[in-house]
Amino acid sequence: MILRRNLSHPSVPSLRSMITSYAILMIYQRMMSACTFADLLSANGDWDIGKLSTTFTAEAISHIISVKSPDPNDTEDVIIWRWSKRHNFEVSSAYSHIFASPWDDKDQIWDLIWKNMVPQRVCLFLWLTCRQRLMTNSERCRRGLGTSAVCPRCHMADESVLHTLRDCVELKAAWMQLLAPGMREVFFQLDLHSWLRCNLSSHVALPGDDIPWRILFASLLWQLWKNQNDLVFNNLSAPTKSLVNKSLALARYYNEPLKQSSSLVHRVEQNHVWPRPPKCWVTKIIWTPRDANKLADRLAKCVNSHLFDVLTLDEPPDYLQPILAADISALHS
Ligand SMILES: [Zn+2]
């Protein structure tokens, strides 16, 4: 009781205010330890990549060095506080900065994501993509969880969100199969947010199939991300043609309720009855738990995640061998 009374006393700072004070102190210390332009230039005034790499990521450095290095005669090379008018550090402006919400809930992009006619898990994936929260190697490095930001597929660039879903050389072929020639140039030049906004707001439909592009776009994005995860975690990768076919089939499936609701034909309710098989057949339907049929379960998972076309196996694949061996040993025991 004494502890509670003391904590509620006005002279005892609340946890929130202590955390805020600590955050402001950290911001101030970080600002004071920040480097000036002079700390990032070589002796002859050009960008020094070695010095830049101690502070910035490789992606940021490529942007920085594309801009002319600053001329020391232009203006005074000092550290400024951007959130106050006089550019001096002020606690009040730091406080406002900490509690300012970066979230724009009026942005149309949220409607484009959450009202797209795709399953909720795909909407959630699109939302994470838009927020740049996908656990790519770049993001893992940024969070201090990994040491290499390089793409595990092409090993030619950092695995950023855009690279994983659009720019990786091996995945471009998938997009090229679906994009009209007139769309290709712009499609590969937009930044992430503009790219998502442009494609998710599209009213274009795929010729012949009548599938809205915004649905097919989301469907292929989802397949590409799953495929990238299969490469990282299972060392498996589906062919581009298979990914496109599966995305098309799923997009048709997602689009079906839309077509039905927009159809002028009235919906007719019908009871579908399972037809009785001929007398010469005896049919038994038995429910088998997944653990009791690991072979079928493993096959189903493999086919479901990698292949959409019909697959014929001449002999059991390697990943079934341990299960088969276990089944055989159980039969003989
Ligand atoms: Zn790549």
Question: What attributes does this structure have?
Answer:
333 residues; mainly alpha; 2 domains; 16 helices; disordered N terminus; binds zinc ion; Reverse transcriptase zinc-binding domain-containing protein
How would you describe this protein?
By secondary structure, this protein is mostly helical. Helix content is 51%, strand content 0%. It contains 16 helices and no strands. It has helices spanning 2-7, 15-33, 49-52, 58-64, 91-99, 108-114, 120-130, 137-142, 161-167, 169-178, 184-187, 192-200, 213-234, 240-262, 294-306, 321-332. The chain is elongated, with a radius of gyration of 28 Å. The termini are far apart. Zinc ion binds next to loops. Zinc ion is lined by residues 151, 153-154, 156-157, 163, 168. It comes from Hibiscus sabdariffa (roselle).
Terminal residue distance: 66 Å
Q: Would you tell me the structural class of the helices and strands?
A: mainly alpha
Q: Uncertain segments of ≥5 residues (pLDDT<50)? A: 1-8
Q: Tell me, what's the shape?
A: elongated
Mean model confidence by pLDDT = 80
Number of domains: 2
Q: Give the number of helices.
A: 16
N-to-C order of helices and strands: HHHHHHHHHHHHHHHH
Rg over alpha carbons: 28 Å
Percent helix range: 40-55%
- Percentage of residues in strands: under 5%
Largest sheet: none
* Number of separate strands: 0
